[in-house]
Amino acid sequence: MVDVDSFIDEKIDEIATEVGDANAVIALSGGVDSSTAAALAYEAIGDQLTPVYVDTGLMRKGETEQIAETFDYMDSLRIVEAKDRFLDALSGITDPEEKRHAIGEQFIREFETVAREVDADYLVQGTIYPDRIESEGTIKSHHNVGGLPDVVDFEGIVEPMRDLYKDEVREVARDLDLEAIIAERMPFPGPGLAVRIIGEVTEEKLGVAREANHVVEEELEEHDPWQALAAVIGKATGVKGDNRVHGWVVAVRSVESRDGMTARAQNVDWETLQRIQSRITGENENVARVLYDVTHKPPATIEYE
Ligand code: XMP
């Protein structure tokens, strides 16, 4: 474990020296990693940093509002409303890697527009150690590692947390007085709810996924999982009233992990699982079934795509 206080001082100095009088941008996702990197860089260079939050429409319930509130102290914060453009870009795509690619491409387009507008020479990124390892092994493409550096001809890439593990990042976040909810928040993937939807991403599936993830996060908070989620994995027959319906199947997953590279499915009690089932099916009449995923990583991954 790194010494957090000296890590922060050191990185603030490093960033200020490297960026000098130039401008920098960072893609702020609202996750622990990019939030911490943005807060660190903002300490170092203030409004020379433009944090860019792209509302892809693939984010968790209330996320955009929360970002706006948490980072309200940064005058340079930009919130880009891009939901419709992302849904268009994803239309008709079912292959997992193609989905990630389409999201990455659209994201780059949105980000590039702002980076050019503010004349940014530096790119700050919240890359952490496991991102680099998994990308090297090409287990799956992480859009927070590839792509962005090629957008604009940046003079430099600043990755203050490239050697940290997730739990170390949380320590840093806490020390930077990021709101508790950010410091404690479960990790959330860059491509958002799209990797929790099997097949094409549609507005309807997104609505089911968003509500179900909200229920799961709320109900499992006491179990303190490393990450808990819900995914829309297909359709199956169910009964609503007197009718047979063909409704959505939602898989619930809750895992314990240190760094996301391996994970254990959590032993969640029956009552909690039933409460989750009842809320998800009750709040959305198009959900026919709720399943609990008991698979560890490996052989499964944490996300569904
Ligand atoms: P998997 O599904 O590979 O996920 O077991 C491991 C951890 O990484 C997160 N994840 C991502 N994070 N961009 C991210 O920033 C991504 O593209 C991405 N894909 C997965 C996942 O939520 C888990 O914490």
Automatic annotation (TrEMBL):
Pfam family, one: NAD_synthase
CDD domains to which the protein is assigned, alphabetical: GMP_synthase_C
EC number: 6.3.5.2
Any one Gene Ontology cellular component term annotated for this protein: cytosol
GO MF annotations in UniProt: ATP binding; GMP synthase activity
UniProt keywords, alphabetically: ATP-binding, GMP biosynthesis, Ligase, Nucleotide-binding, Purine biosynthesis
SUPFAM superfamilies tied to this protein: Adenine nucleotide alpha hydrolases-like (SSF52402), GMP synthetase C-terminal dimerisation domain (SSF54810)
UniProt keyword ATP-binding, yes or no: yes
Reaction equations catalysed: XMP + L-glutamine + ATP + H2O = GMP + L-glutamate + AMP + diphosphate + 2 H(+)
Gene3D superfamilies linked: 3.30.300.10, HUPs
Annotated positions binding ATP: S29, G30, G31, V32, D33, S34, S35
Domain of life, per lineage: Archaea
Pathway in which this enzyme or protein is active: Purine metabolism; GMP biosynthesis; GMP from XMP (L-Gln route): step 1/1
InterPro entries listed in its UniProt record: GMP_synth_C, GMP_synthase_B, GMPS_ATP_PPase_dom, NAD/GMP_synthase, Rossmann-like_a/b/a_fold
Domain GMPS ATP-PPase: 2-185
Subunit-level organization: Heterodimer composed of a glutamine amidotransferase subunit (A) and a GMP-binding subunit (B).
Functional description taken from the UniProt entry: Catalyzes the synthesis of GMP from XMP.
Matching PANTHER family: GMP SYNTHASE [GLUTAMINE-HYDROLYZING], GMP SYNTHASE-RELATED
HAMAP family in the cross-refs: GMP_synthase_B
Protein name: GMP synthase [glutamine-hydrolyzing] subunit B
Gene expressing this chain: guaA
